[in-house]
Amino acid sequence: MRTPKDLQGHAAKYLRNHFAEALADPAALTLDWPLHPPTATAAARDTKATRDFIRAWQRWPHQEEVIYESRNWSRAGLGTNDVPTRVVLTGAARIAAAAGLMSDYNRALQRAQDIAAIFPDSPDFTHTVRHTYNQWKDLSAYDLRCLGPCLTWLRANPHSGEWERAVPVEGVDGKWIGTHRRLLLALLAPFGITDLGLRRSDARLRLRYLNHAPALSDIEIPLADAATLFPDTPPRVLIVENKQTFLALPALADASPTTIAILGSGTAAHQLQALGWLQRADITYWGDLDAAGFAILNAVRAHFPHTTSLLMDPATVTEFQHLAVPDPGDGSATLTHLTTEEQRAYRLLYTKGRLRIEQERIPFAYVSAKTHTLLSLADMEHTHCT
């Protein structure tokens, strides 16, 4: 038997796990919680506990939320009783009130409104703010004062090339942007910005040989040094966004041309501009199937028009839609450098309910087969051309 006190603890846990949804669409949030009333036998065995259970819910101030069912307990000597069987709380405010977290919820609502007011004419920005609650909920008052000016400057200067610690925003600590890079990128995504366009003194490139591997096959070097790596014939390049995927990529046969994987980590479009040899390399990009992933592909192809993509097509979206989760990014931006098939995949994710499918969720066997197929086709084209 569950009591109103039990509901408070459950509602608090539920709200904390669904705070982003509570901010994004408060009216749609519903908590339907079974109360596990006693059976006739259990009620007869402990009539006092049963009466206390029923009376506790009869005293619940919002009786419209309590669902009662008639139970015939005559055989147990207790007659017919209207027994509370479940409670249904509708709306984030009611769940917050039941959880004893109304002040926390109101504070989060106010903070979301304050951040959304930075760009009040952008509904997509407001949507993103509400869905990135976990990234801004612990910001200090100083952080909140920095957030607006930094977002405004970065949106107005997306390709500035300024040093990260030297951005000319008054009153902002030099390390603040670097510390809050992930949040800034998430909030700027609705405007098609996938890289802050800033230089970092510690910019490095990580690459891994998939075949023809030297003694050190997985290396990380300063970006400036990476620019001088392949003065003659560059290898084929596969750019991936996530570290786990980068490490799990299958080895290729040495009969194939030299192929390397580059870890993009969300900065591929901006950093890779420094690698002049990429203009002469065969490039394939594979990112997450989400708004950010397609925006990065779009930006990479803007600099390297010959870039092809891997597993960023409607067939992959359809095949693994069951592994999708809500996408906090904005999938409505116009991305002019995508192919027709990539555009279809991009729109499919958006129309299916703003979904994202992370690289890591796609089964390794499927990835391995598609990677070998793609690169084998590239080998055939290369042989034909030569």
Q: Mind sketching the topology for me?
A:
Elements: H1 4-17, H2 19-24, E1 30-34, H3 40-45, H4 47-58, E2 66-72, E3 80-90, H5 92-99, H6 102-116, H7 123-131, H8 133-136, H9 141-156, H10 176-179, H11 181-188, E4 204-209, E5 218-222, H12 223-226, E6 236-240, H13 243-248, E7 259-263, H14 268-271, E8 283-286, H15 291-303, E9 308-309, H16 314-319, E10 325-326, H17 340-351, E11 355-356, H18 364-385
Parallel strand pairs: 6-7, 6-8, 8-9
Antiparallel strand pairs: 1-3, 2-3, 4-5, 4-7, 10-11
Describe what you observe in this structure.
The chain has 386 residues and is an alpha/beta fold. 44% of the residues lie in helices and 14% in strands. The protein is built from 18 helices and 11 strands. The protein has a 6-stranded mixed β-sheet with strand order 5-4-7-6-8-9. Strands 1-3-2 form a 3-stranded antiparallel β-sheet. The longest helix is centred in the C-terminal third of the chain and has 22 residues, at 364-385. The protein is elongated and about 95 Å long.
